[in-house]
Amino acid sequence: MKTLIAPFLAAALLLGTAAHAQQVQPLDRIVAVVDEDVILQSELDLALNNVLAQYAGREDQLPPREILQRQVLERLVLVHLQTARAGEMGVRVGDEEIDNAISNIAAQNRLTPDQLRQQLASDGMSYDDFRRSLRDELLSQRLRQRFAQTRISVSEAEVDAALASQTGEQYHLAHILVALPDGATPEQIATGQQKIDGIKGLLDKGEMTFAAAAVRYSDSPNALEGGDLGWRSLDEIPAAFANTIRTLQKGQLVGPIRGPSGFQLLQLVDTRSTDQAAAQSVTQYRARHILVRSEGDDDAAKARIDTLRARIAGGADFAEVAKENSDDTFSKDKGGELGWFTQDQFGPEFGAQVAGLQDGGVSAPFKTQAGWHIVQREETRQTDVTDDNRRAQMRERIGQRKLEDEWNRFLREMRGEAYVDIRTGNQAAAGGNGG
């Protein structure tokens, strides 16, 4: 199993064991108190063992166990805070969503869900723990999405400027962060500067690889991944680094530079050229639909949509039936008219029905999350979306860059405001740190 889904399990275990605190044996030792909940030794051991399994054969890249334990425990603290905040905001993940996620994970690894369950058991992980891990990871993802929707915006001017400066080059980057608190004192700044200079000295002397130094010393959430930032275009790189990155050779460093989060070192791992997007066209459909919402009585809704479909089959005008009967307030007054759209725009079930019709055809009743539908496909066209796609991709890149900075700041704020009492290692001896 470690070779099959270890990357996923790393995320799941490190991002998803807060709920496990309620499910373990009563004698399990508390290693941290996080607001009104706890993290138990069994959770920490589970996450630690997973990291050790990922680094099998490369143990020399890991920091001493006490430092590794502190890093993993800090991730668990952040996970608990994220899932708690998600709950406060009404973010929920249902059992059906977890079932679907498990089915997808199994399929990606060429397993059935039952085979995945058996493989988890053979690796010593209970299926219930795995589900709880998935639930918490999905909650964290939903919280991040909600955060992006409310805090991140990208203007058309920003997209224009980024497209104008696009070079077709991508850069594989890694970084090391020495974090500073908001409003850092001169002493804290000096300590941070001394630490980042020390790390830079080790790298310059060749005493440690960049990835090993990131694992051991970085305060970034991706420290245990060697600080890997993946492939990025210039528009996805902070402005403080972007111009310099273009002049570097593989393996060279930038920094240290002080940014919003603290002092950073950046390494150029590799570069590659990307072809400019070729001309692209998509099929668009124009259609009308009638919606009948279930509202707790699915049988009645089905009977009603069947009646409306029978009327249309008998010669009634689709638009008139929609005006009189559709529960879609946005299209009802227009005779159910939806305008031009792509197949996936209104969800896979709706798109599949439209794509399966001929122009002028009317579907049988079908169900989506919104309720019961009948759709009439009016016409089809091919549309050049090359420029739209380029702009959408650029908008996504800029948004992701902004989100990374703002999300990390949000996590630091949330961590600083929380009550966290660490009861293991040196931090316990120092009395933990309450927020």
From TrEMBL:
It is an enzyme of class 5 (isomerase). Its EC number is 5.2.1.8. GO terms for molecular function: peptidyl-prolyl cis-trans isomerase activity. It catalyses: [protein]-peptidylproline (omega=180) = [protein]-peptidylproline (omega=0). Residues 1-21 form the signal peptide. Keywords: Chaperone, Isomerase, Periplasm, Repeat, Rotamase, Signal. InterPro entries: OMP_Chaperone_SurA, PPIase_dom_sf, PPIase_PpiC, PPIase_PpiC_CS, PPIase_SurA, SurA_N, Trigger_fact/SurA_dom_sf. The PPIase activity resides only in the second parvulin domain. The N-terminal region and the C-terminal tail are necessary and sufficient for the chaperone activity of SurA. The PPIase activity is dispensable for SurA to function as a chaperone. The N-terminal region and the C-terminal tail are also required for porin recognition. Chaperone involved in the correct folding and assembly of outer membrane proteins. Recognizes specific patterns of aromatic residues and the orientation of their side chains, which are found more frequently in integral outer membrane proteins. May act in both early periplasmic and late outer membrane-associated steps of protein maturation. This is Chaperone SurA. The gene is surA.
